[in-house]
Amino acid sequence: MTAEPRVRPERDGDPVAEVVRAAFADEGDHVAALWAELAASDLLLGSLVAEVDGQVVGHVGLSHAWVDARRELVDVWVLSPLSVVPDRQGAGAGTRLVEAAVAAARDGGAPLLFLEGDPGYYRPRGFERADRHGFAPATTRTPAPGFQVVRFETHEEWMTGQLVYPDIWWRYDAAGLRDPRLAEIEELLR
Ligand SMILES: CC(C)(COP(=O)(O)OP(=O)(O)OC[C@H]1O[C@@H](n2cnc3c(N)ncnc32)[C@H](O)[C@@H]1OP(=O)(O)O)[C@@H](O)C(=O)NCCC(=O)NCCS
Fold first, then answer.
1. For 28, which of 21, 124, 170, 171 could close a Cys bridge (C-beta 3.0–4.6 Å)?
2. CA dihedral 32, 37, 38, 39 (to 10 degrees)
3. Is the CB of 91 under 6 A from ligand 1?
4. Residue 1 pLDDT grade (very low, low, confident, very high; cuts 50, 70, 90)
C-alpha cells in the first residue's frame, strides 16, 4: 500500500529541480531555472517538498512580492511553482503541498498569498478570485479567474492594489500568459 504524502521543508540534496522539470514537461527547464533563481535570492520565503515512501514526489515554492497600495508597498507572498511528478499525480500530494504553503504563509505573518493558476484546482483549496477584493494582477495578460488570493488575519482593508512581481519574474517572462495560450484560455472563459 502507498503511504500518504508527507510535507516537510526542503533539505540539501532533495531533487527539487528534477521534480519541477518533470511536472512542467515542455516548460520544465524554464520553470526550474526561474525557481532556482528565486530560491537563491533574498526573495525566498519557503520551499517545501512532498514525500511518499521516502521519495520526493512534489514541491511548492513561496517567494516575496508586493501589493502597490495607495498608502505604501505591502509585503506579500506568492505561491509558485507547484509541482507533482506525473506518475504520482492524483494521490493528494498537490493538495497537501497547497495546505502546507497556506499554513506557512499564515505562520509567517503574511497578509496575503497570491498565485496564478487554474481556479478549478485552487478554489476548493482555499483561494478566492483576487479581483473580487480589489487586487489587480501584475499584468493584464493574467485571466481574471486565474488570479487568486488567500487573505489572512493580518490583512487590513487598505492593503489593496496591484500585485508587483520582482524583476526575476519579468526576466523569465513568467507573469501571466502569452498567445496562443492566452487566447485559448480566454476562448474557454467566454
Ligand atoms: C496541479 C498539480 C500540482 C496537482 O497535483 P496532484 O498531486 O495531482 O493533486 P491532488 O492529487 O492533490 O489533486 C488531484 C485532483 O485535482 C484535480 N486537478 C489536477 N489538476 C487540475 C487542474 N488544473 N484543474 C482542476 N483540477 C485539477 C485532479 O483531477 C484530481 O481531482 P480528483 O481528486 O477529483 O480526482 C499537478 O497536476 C502538477 O504538478 N501539474 C503540472 C504542473 C502544474 O500545472 N502546476 C500548477 C501550476 S499553477
1. 21
2. 80
3. yes
4. low
